[in-house]
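Figure 3 (text version): structure tokens given as input.
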């Protein structure tokens, strides 16, 4: 006699718990991602190889964004440039590159420590991953990597911190 009643009570309790479960996540959202672990990148960086010089400059994180730019000069002429930004959106951190007038491409932050930030976009042709490493002592390593012509390719760009123009 009590068995059908007990089953009904269990179903009602489960339904109540289930509805509470849909409310609880609204209060359990993690804080939004921030860019403080990338603050070391702010400032001016240089990579010089013979007469080919690349400068990369980053603004400090503020308002959920970091803006950057890169310019490569060889033989007295600009041969490549890039508008860059790192931004918080859709609850994640993205590295967005707009190189030499090509289409803008976003890479999602997939790994981070105090010294390494790895951004990835597996759908992009090349690179699929961009890694920024703080090597300390005013040195940084930027790596681009991914599949190219069926082979894994990693290209290193070592940079030295330099004074920003006008500072």
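Below: residues designed for each position.
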């Amino acid at each position: 006699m009590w068995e059908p009643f007990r089953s009904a009570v269990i179903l009602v309790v489960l339904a109540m718990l289930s509805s509470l479960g849909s409310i609880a996540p609204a209060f359990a959202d993690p804080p939004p991602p921030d860019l403080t672990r990338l603050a070391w990148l702010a400032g001016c960086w240089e990579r010089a190889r013979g007469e080919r010089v690349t400068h990369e400059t980053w603004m400090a994180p503020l308002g959920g964004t970091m803006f950057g730019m890169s310019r490569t000069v060889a033989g007295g002429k600009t041969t490549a440039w890039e508008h860059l930004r790192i931004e918080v959106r859709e609850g994640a951190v993205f590295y967005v590159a707009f190189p030499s007038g090509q289409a803008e491409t976003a890479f999602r932050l997939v790994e981070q420590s105090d010294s390494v930030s790895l951004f990835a976009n597996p759908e992009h042709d090349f690179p699929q991953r961009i890694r920024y490493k703080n090597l300390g002592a005013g040195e940084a390593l930027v790596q681009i990597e991914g599949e190219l012509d069926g082979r894994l390719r990693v290209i290193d760009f070592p940079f030295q911190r330099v004074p920003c123009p006008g500072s």
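Residues 2-27 form the longest helix (26 residues).
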